[in-house]
Specification:
Strand content: 25-35%
Bound molecules: coenzyme A
Structural class: alpha+beta
Distance between the termini: 33 Å
Strand order of the largest sheet: 1-3-4-5-2
CATH class: Alpha Beta
Largest sheet: 5 strands, antiparallel
CATH superfamily: Hotdog Thioesterase
Radius of gyration: 17 Å
Length: 171
């Protein structure tokens, strides 16, 4: 399978924050943002793998900044590393000023998707070739995030998580 770059899967979705999307402080409800990120990430994973994909795990979410009612929110997702049948998708969330058009980074998240064949079984995905420095940085750190996610899910023994061990123990 031919390698693809992150830009081949880049997915950008902009939408408003309307009253039905907010919490009691009139900021975007966390679950609504998770759903928007999941949709964009699902499209990105589908673009990379040309397959049906499912969300396998949410590895990281940082709700760093509240997103007020009326904001224009842009969710940008791209595959940051492809493994055998799974893909890590990195999601950046931006708020755009109505008046200056200036964009501020509000949140980010990392999801894992798995590509499935017509029988619903995990199927191989093309490799990912990072191009920019940021893409290379995200690619390099993705293996330890995968190992952490698998350890937390009880699917990998901590002693087998070589990248994580190297990070914590300097091995
Ligand atoms: C995701 C799913 C296909 C994985 O099935 P599985 O039997 O664990 O399959 P495998 O063990 O072959 O794992 C498939 C890949 O997923 C990865 N994976 C599984 N669980 C993971 C987790 N918690 N974190 C990171 N990666 C995970 C495996 O490492 C493997 O990756 P690789 O082939 O690239 O090395 C299956 O659990 C599923 O269908 N879940 C429901 C998905 C869904 O409906 N999501 C919508 C939200 S409700």
């Amino acid at each position: 399978m031919q390698a693809k770059s992150p830009s081949a899967s880049r997915t950008v979705m902009s939408d408003l924050v309307l009253p039905g999307d907010t919490n009691m402080l009139n900021n975007l409800f966390g679950g609504e943002l998770l759903a928007r990120m999941d949709r964009a990430a699902s499209i990105a994973a589908g673009r990379h793998s040309s397959s049906i994909t499912v969300t396998a795990s949410v590895n990281h979410v940082a709700f760093t900044q509240a997103v007020p009612l009326g904001s224009v929110v842009t969710v940008e997702a791209a595959v940051s590393r492809a493994f055998t049948t799974s893909m890590e998708v990195f999601i950046d969330v931006w708020i755009e000023s109505r008046f200056s058009g200036e964009r501020t980074k509000a949140n980010e998240a990392i999801y894992t998707f798995v590509a499935l064949d017509e029988m619903g079984k995990p199927t191989k995905v093309p490799p990912l070739k990072p191009v920019s420095d940021l893409e290379k940085e995200r690619f390099a750190a993705a293996l330890r995030r995968k190992q952490l996610s698998l350890v937390l899910a009880g699917k990998l023994e901590p002693r087998e998580a070589t990248e994580l061990r190297a990070l914590f123990m300097g091995e």
